User: Which sequence fits this backbone?
């Protein structure tokens, strides 16, 4: 099974900060990676697919990059609505999540 | 407009079998490429993918839970059913169903249903 490892587990940041979350795969997955945002009590929301493609309706401050085994999700200027938990996913495996909290 | 909604018991006893139904609208599971999956999330923990069924009845299961899971579809009713046998308190979680197209991640999700396993 492919394992997905996210870092950090928790990230403290302020509004306006540039934020980067990393996801590493235990073996190459080409560009088959998605990123989701989840807020408490809500279902996850798809942000990025195929590593760098922005889902329709998602603000352009979100971007994804990477291929092979290392991927990043970047929020260029953190907004109040962005405080949430973020998950990467490859096929049947999710990462363990990164909580972005207010500094 | 695509919507999905999970239904089933909120409380099951250990060793019992859980049956969850996902009722959806806005798409058909007879359309080429379409799939519906189940994902769960224990309280305060990460997402875990469970199972997936495609329009052509191709079924995929989490390797760690495969022996306990069965996924089926009823295209005429726009429903997907997940059964999980031998429930244990560690299976307490919010269970989500979600839509996907082949080669594309889960883009529409249900609201989730919390299932508690307790005697």
Assistant:
């Amino acid at each position: 099974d492919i394992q997905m490892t996210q870092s950090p587990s928790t990230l403290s940041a302020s509004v306006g900060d540039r934020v980067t979350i990393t996801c590493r795969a235990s073996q190459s997955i080409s560009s088959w990676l998605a990123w989701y945002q989840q807020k408490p009590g809500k279902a996850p929301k798809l942000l990025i697919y195929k590593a760098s493609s922005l889902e329709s309706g998602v603000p352009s401050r979100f971007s994804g990059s990477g291929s092979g085994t290392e991927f990043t999700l970047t929020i260029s200027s953190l907004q109040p609505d962005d405080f949430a938990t973020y998950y990467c996913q490859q096929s049947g495996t999710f990462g363990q999540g990164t909580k972005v909290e207010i500094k | 407009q695509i919507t999905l909604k999970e239904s089933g018991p909120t409380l099951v006893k250990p060793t019992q079998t859980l049956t969850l139904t996902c009722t959806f609208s806005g798409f058909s599971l007879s359309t080429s490429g379409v799939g519906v999956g189940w994902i769960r999330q224990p309280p305060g923990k990460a997402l875990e993918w469970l199972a997936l069924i495609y329009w052509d009845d191709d079924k995929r299961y989490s390797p760690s839970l495969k022996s306990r899971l069965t996924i089926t579809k009823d295209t005429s009713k726009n429903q997907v059913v997940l059964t999980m046998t031998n429930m244990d308190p560690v299976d307490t979680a919010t269970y989500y169903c979600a839509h996907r197209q082949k080669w594309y991640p889960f883009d529409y999700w249900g609201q989730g249903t919390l299932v508690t396993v307790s005697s």
Notes: Residues 5 and 111 of chain B are 6 Å apart (CA to CA).
